[in-house]
Design a protein that fits this description.
mainly alpha; 97% helix; 87 residues; 1 helix
Length: 87
Amino acid sequence: MSKLESASEHLSAALDALEAAAAPLAEARARAESDAAVIARLRQEREELLARIAVLEEEGRALAGITGEVEERLDGAIAEIREALGR
């Protein structure tokens, strides 16, 4: 075997080893990109949910105010009915 053939075999073996070592790195990069996309979608969904929660909290406060007003009116109506019945 000549020195050139030997060097060619060593080079080929080194390239194969380098390729084998790089494959997991390429897979890891692909997973990282996929994970980054998932994280971005989850962050967007979180922001949408936080906005929805804020809307629902505001609606809850508005309903609480309406409920209080209705309660006052009912109490007044009950008092008037009791007064009318007591006469």
